[in-house]
Design a protein that fits this description.
By secondary structure, the protein is of the alpha+beta class. It folds into three domains: 78 residues, no CATH class; 204 residues, Beta-lactamase, CATH 3.40.710.10; 108 residues, Up-down Bundle (Methane Monooxygenase Hydroxylase, Chain G, domain 1), CATH 1.20.58.710. It is built from 17 helices and 15 strands. The strands form four sheets. Strands 5-4-15-14-13-12-11 form a seven-stranded antiparallel β-sheet, sandwiched between helices. Strands 1-7-8-6 form a four-stranded antiparallel β-sheet. A two-stranded antiparallel sheet has the order 2-3. It is globular. The N terminus is likely disordered.
Length: 446
């Protein structure tokens, strides 16, 4: 096994995502279509036992390389330890649907919608975009009603799917709720909330700088560099037994304690996952609860969801606040609707409206830079992406194509779960974002 390959398997979800990125070049060179790479067509893990070449395991198999990832995104707890985000024992609150005939008409008309992808002159239909982006699940809600719902690949109605970095938006939302309720001071220094952070570069950052990822911390995600920080982080976070000669940090929080500085806090936005895990530690310290317990208490138990969610943990049981959640499609739609309704759902207020008002307003656009050309002139705040477009849209986004897209003007919530071969939304945005706009305009016209 090569050095790079061995490092790919050293981590938990951070390493999992890194593996998807590292395999991107191969996926680009020899791509299989969405239909060809469908896990049911590929035959992954089918049979008792499956054929040896169809078995996907951890750590011996590249379980998050394409096309295996198209099966693995629905089966993460079979590879990694997890903690439950409990929905409690109450009955779920059913989602609202149009009549069967109207629902069928919505699907037919939406599938036939056309749009022009970014930097292209050729039109594409909505349905074509689903396959182009390796969609596993798509749900669209308009004015609180589900008008479109489809499942592909590994995902079924009662299934769950990894949401990757959309997890960050859960963490950021919980922090913003605590700020709005006066439980968390976003102007406090990290060292004042978590003294154990010691001499880490995080110590002198404010909580808000962590929330908005404007910290000046050193963290490289250059996957081609075997000595990049991502591999050290992945090794620290791995729930698997450490090698006998391992001398690095053990767990997310020990890694955060040794982060060095790079640049000045508060000057620029840099998308670095370690901010999310620092924020997870902060809100756990202030609330006295793990991020899984907090998400259950403040969201999942009160939203009327259908299914428990779950979140991967490191070797010490610390949940991965930057990317570890797996959840059901409809329940993610409920979360999007909660955001659209500014904290209200099923006739109850779950958190103050100013939480969503703060997120919708976005961050400092001058700090966003030009590193996301397909996204546009947006911003980032409270671990949410803000488009600053004519519709005031904002989103939770995750690698391989995960999104909760909230369009307040169109009164639309869109959730997509996907297993795109390459772990970069820059490959997906050119078709996805114009498609979302086309659906929003269609719904508004109705």
């Amino acid at each position: 096994m090569s050095l790079l390959t061995s490092k790919l398997f050293s981590g938990t979800m951070g390493g999992v995502i890194a593996l998807g990125l590292a395999m991107g070049a191969q996926a680009q060179t020899v791509p299989l279509s969405a239909q060809e790479s469908d896990p049911n067509v590929m035959g992954w893990m089918q049979g008792f036992p499956p054929p040896p070449d169809k078995i996907i395991t951890q750590p011996d198999s590249h379980y998050f390389s394409f096309p295996r990832l198209r099966w693995s995104v629905c089966h993460l707890r079979e590879f990694l330890p997890t903690e439950e985000i409990s929905r409690g024992i109450g009955a779920p609150v059913p989602l609202s649907y149009p009549s069967p005939s109207d629902f069928a008409e919505f699907r037919s008309q939406i599938d036939a919608l056309t749009f022009t992808p970014q930097s292209s002159e050729a039109q594409m239909t909505w349905e074509q975009s689903l396959y182009a982006n390796y969609t596993d699940g798509m749900l669209i809600m308009h004015r609180g009603e589900v008008v479109y719902e489809r499942y592909f690949g590994c995902l079924e109605e009662d299934g769950k799917h990894a949401i990757m970095s959309m997890t960050k938006s859960f963490t950021g939302l919980l922090a913003e709720i605590m700020v709005a309720e006066g439980l968390l001071d976003d102007g406090a220094l990290v060292r004042e909330v978590v003294p154990e952070i010691g001499d880490s570069a995080f110590a002198s950052a404010t909580v808000r700088q962590v929330m908005d990822m404007t910290t000046g911390v050193k963290y490289s995600e250059d996957y081609a560099d075997p000595n990049a920080d991502i591999w050290l982080y992945s090794a620290a976070a791995s729930p698997l037994p450490k090698p006998a000669d391992y001398e690095g940090p053990n767990g997310y929080w020990e890694y955060l304690q040794q982060v060095e500085g790079e640049g000045k806090h508060g000057t620029e936005f840099h998308y670095k996952t370690i901010n999310s895990d620092m924020l997870g530690w902060i809100i756990s310290r202030v609330s006295g609860k793990s991020v899984t317990e907090l998400a259950s208490d403040r969201l999942w138990r009160r939203m009327g969801v259908e299914q428990d969610a779950y979140q991967t943990v490191d070797g010490k049981g610390v949940p991965f606040a930057g990317g570890g959640i797996t959840a059901g499609l409809r329940d993610l739609g409920r979360l999007g609707q909660l955001m659209l309704n500014e904290g209200r759902l099923n006739g109850q207020r779950l958190f103050p409206a100013k939480v969503v008002e703060k997120i919708r307003a976005g961050g400092d656009r001058s700090k966003f830079g030009e590193g996301f050309p397909t996204f546009g002139a947006g911003s980032y705040t409270s671990q949410w992406w803000v488009f600053h477009n004519d519709h005031g849209a904002y989103a939770a986004r995750g690698v391989h194509g995960q999104t909760i897209y909230v369009d307040p003007t169109a009164e639309m919530v869109l959730v997509r779960l996907a297993s795109f071969p390459q772990a970069q939304n820059g490959f997906i945005d050119p078709t996805s974002l114009p498609a979302y706009q086309a659906v929003a305009e269609y719904l508004m016209a109705r």
